[in-house]
Write a structure and sequence with these properties.
Number of domains: 3
Shape: globular
Number of helices: 10
Strand content: 25-35%
Distance between the termini: 21 Å
Order of helices and strands: EHEEEEEEHHHEHEEHEEEEHEHEEHH
EC number: 6.3.2.4
Organism: Flavihumibacter stibioxidans
Structural class: alpha+beta
Number of strands: 17
Pfam family, one: Dala_Dala_lig_C
CATH superfamily of the largest domain: ATP-grasp fold, B domain
CATH architecture of the largest domain: 2-Layer Sandwich
CATH topology of the largest domain: D-amino Acid Aminotransferase, Chain A, domain 1
Radius of gyration: 20 Å
Mean pLDDT: 91
Helix content: 25-40%
Function: Cell wall formation.
Family: Belongs to the D-alanine--D-alanine ligase family.
Largest sheet: 6 strands, antiparallel
Length: about 325
Amino acid sequence: MRARPVIAFVTGGYSGESEISYKSAITIEKNVDTEKYEIYKIDIRKDGWFHTTGGGDVIEVDRNDFSISFLDAKIKFDAVLIGIHGTPGEDGKLQGYFDMLGIPYTSCDAATSALTFNKRYTVAVAAFAGIHVAKSLHLFRERTVDAAAIAAQLQFPVFVKPNNGGSSIGMSKVNHAGELNAALVKAFKEDDQVLVEEFIAGREFTIGVFRHKGEIITLPFTEVIAKNEFFDFEAKYQGLSEEITPAVVDEEIAEKVRDTARQVYQVFNCRGIIRIDFIYSEAKGEPCMLEINTVPGQSEASIVPQQVKAMGWTLKEFYSALIEDALALK
């Protein structure tokens, strides 16, 4: 009988998004196929990288080769299932580390992860490839621009958000110049760079995309209708939004969203599962890309698990597909 592949499932992280990582971990642990894979959960935190055994023993990971040792055995991993939102699991740092060690993983590679973690660079590359995006300004803490200068270049309302990271932490919608300074202070608390982006009128869609056995698969996409003024942290994770999966939409619009999602996946050389957020601009009759999440949430409140189920797959089948595609890279 063939030994089961040994998989490290990494969770935690170094940022405020670790809270979301641990919520995702509950869903992943419930649904990953432990008959097919030997799974070890690794908690990556600022104070160390640890595995806790079934008996409650806490073992530190040897970062020289990403292994753990217990019961007189050294365990090395065939692949890594990445479930860390924010740094270092979504910004390319862990991916670069695993690349150096020759261990395959379930997410985009280091270059794509680092690029897409920066919202401004992401929309710049997308625009260069002919994908519609909102007009925006990229601000730096040491070179901040005053409200009047922003108002002279962008039309209100605008969104102000930390340039790096996800989960809509630190994000604000600003309707006039008088609200800008408070929104900038809030965003700069989360990051040294801030993106100020023009509001696009339209319907908000979000779509999961992954590659399986060489084919780019788009999941049935979701329309997000926020009960707050926009799809912020509370709307995403505390139930203050209505999510319709699959979205009720004309097939012509649906095909444009799917086509653009596949184009984004190819342009950014993505791997594993990503989630792309769009506004469908009624004025342009085209989807405008907002951002790419290379480690999308997997909690009970998250969108990708809903879309997987709408496709007719179980989460166990889905996580197995991600792991098998990673193992094929060995």
